[in-house]
Protein: Response regulatory domain-containing protein
Organism: Anaeromyxobacter oryzae
Amino acid sequence: MRRYLIVDDNVEFAENLAEILSDGGDQVAIAANGEEALALARTTTFDAVLTDMRMPLMGGAELVHEIRRVDPGAAAMVITAHVGDDALEAARREGLLAVLQKPVAAGRILELLSAARRDGLVVVVEDDDRLSDNLCEALRTKGFAAVTAASVLQTERLGPVRPFCALVDLRVPGGPDGEAMRRLALKYPGLPMIVVTAYHEVPPLPHEAYFSKPFDTPSLLAAVERLHASQPGAAAGASA
């Protein structure tokens, strides 16, 4: 059994989605605004949170920010009719599993919620935008969310998140080879790292796996899966 939190001032939408999820055997809490949602998140551990972006009292971006402080392990998704909303960029820095544009089919929401991983946030450090997007999408298909950095400096600007691993290109702008890896180790002590590189650099720090470009994506995802499964309490999950 999994637990979900649905936050939307469109009560009919939230109740309909909750009914579908409940019929499947999951537990669902509903909040009409961010303040109600935050109160629920303080007392209940959720596998995933789905929130609208524009709501009274507290918007979706602010809610994701606050929930990250209460329960950084919950997967987060936002649904919005305004994909150009500036607040979305702030929310993305907090690590989103998905941004869904209204109207969205209930089946797509259910698919993402069922795959969402608690404590499933990955840092992706890659300066090739296309490869970074492809990696993030591949991770998303397995229920993992990602925050990204394209340079050494951007690793310093990652939001207050709690990743369980990082995929790191050793050669990115802003510093010598391996500097992004060093910065991540300082920012997130003990963070397991997977090296992804087109060159033959020697990683400056211990790492869990080494993939040379072009790499086999299923093998890379399998390595991420192993790291996620090795986390303390991973088998218990939110519904234990």
